[in-house]
Amino acid sequence: MVDVRITPLEENVFGVEVEEGGLRTGHRIAVPRGFLDDLLLEPDDAAEVAYETVDFLLDREPATALPGEFSVYDVSRDHDDYTSELIVRLGRGGPPGEPAP
After folding, report:
1. Which residue in 23, 31, 72, 83 has the fewest CB atoms around it within 10 Å?
2. What DSSP element (H or E) covers 38?
3. What does the alpha-carbon distance between residue 25 and residue 33 come to, in Å, rounded to a whole number?
4. Which residues, in sequence order, are CB contacts of 58 under 8 Å at separation 6+?
5. How far is Cα 83 from Cα 40, in angstroms, rounded to an integer?
6. How many domains are there within the chain?
7. Does a structural domain hold residue 96?
8. 19-71 tens-digit pLDDT
9. Range of the domain at 14
């Protein structure tokens, strides 16, 4: 079982603690306002974006492979399916700019 804890550190920056199989890792993730704006999300969505981003990465690699510090822009650059998957995970429906069903 994987346990993910998100803690606000400063505006649009979150501390992430991942506990997986008795191993605990710590990370720092930035969710810039411009990224939220691009996806038509509100500032209050930043913590959820941080959580879902880490969950997205954990579906692909172990917690020990996650960088100590990164931005959601890094994830979108490295994973072509990240943005569309994030929208689905956030329950916003289709691609950005399209209304949810």
Report:
1. 23
2. helix 33-38
3. 26
4. 2, 4, 18, 20, 66
5. 12
6. 1
7. no
8. 988 899 999 999 999 999 999 999 999 999 999 999 999 999 999 999 999 99
9. 2-89
- CB neighbourhood size of 18 (10 A): 21
pTM of the model: 0.88
Residue 69 domain flag? yes
- State the Cα–Cα distance between residues 89 and 57, nearest whole angstrom: 13
In a domain, 14, yes or no: yes
Give pLDDT, residue 86.
96
H helix or E strand, kind and range, residue 41: none
Q: And the tokens for 96?
A: 């950005």
φ, ψ of residue 74 in degrees (nearest 5)? -60, -40
89 membership: H or E segment, kind and range:
helix 82-89
Q: Report yes or no: 23 and 63 within 8 Å, Cβ to Cβ.
A: yes
